[in-house]
UniProtKB/TrEMBL annotation, chains A, B:
Pfam families: PRA-CH (PF01502)
Group of enzyme by EC: hydrolase
UniProt name for this protein: Phosphoribosyl-AMP cyclohydrolase
Oligomeric form and interacting partners: Homodimer.
Originating organism: Biformimicrobium ophioploci
Binding site for Mg(2+): D76, D78, D80
Cofactor note text: Binds 1 Mg(2+) ion per subunit.
Purpose of the protein: Catalyzes the hydrolysis of the adenine ring of phosphoribosyl-AMP.
UniProt-listed HAMAP family: HisI (MF_01021)
Pathway named in the protein's UniProt entry: Amino-acid biosynthesis; L-histidine biosynthesis; L-histidine from 5-phospho-alpha-D-ribose 1-diphosphate: step 3/9
Amino acid sequence: MDFLEQVKWNSDGLAPAIAQDAETGRILMLAWMNREALALSAKEQRAVYWSRSRQALWRKGESSGHVQHIREIRLDCDADAIVLQVEQVGGIACHTGRESCFYQRLEGDRWVTVEAPRKDAREIYG
Amino acid sequence: MDFLEQVKWNSDGLAPAIAQDAETGRILMLAWMNREALALSAKEQRAVYWSRSRQALWRKGESSGHVQHIREIRLDCDADAIVLQVEQVGGIACHTGRESCFYQRLEGDRWVTVEAPRKDAREIYG
């Protein structure tokens, strides 16, 4: 479909996709999509990414139940980055059990973990 | 410095950096950083990116005046993506003259431009 062709996929056929909590505005995670992941995300209105480590489609929440329902999908000016506005089921996006993957803050010259996991990470991977 | 080594730079020595408006939570843009860009951003507390098209450091706002003052720098769980909380001088991050680069919304199977430029783009590039 045209909208898939209009994205400027990188040399691996991927584009970065940022998931943002539609209610709070918090940035939850950055993952990657290929054509199929974006097509499925648009069709199903839930986030489907491409796992670079597993080299497979990754239906967010398929094992944890922590699905991301999509309210809106946006593309940037040079068509190579995507933002998803999502409703994060369970309020936890990160496989470490935290709301957001961005829980390390730069303080001086150190990355400091500034949030504790809310749940045991083993419960919620995926 | 250690904090630079802890980032998992990709095969080009880069990591994606998301700039988010510290006041509104709006995602303004996604750009790229290399070690030097992150080191300078941390030191100067203003956003410095790596321009992949120009293959050069890109001090955001150096030609437009639309500097991004950094309030906070975060790193994600797998240490390969960065979020900057910024104060966007002039309220315009995008070279097209818009507040955010993410002004195209997926509606059905079309990307629709849902925001008009606030200023002539030629005035504000950079």
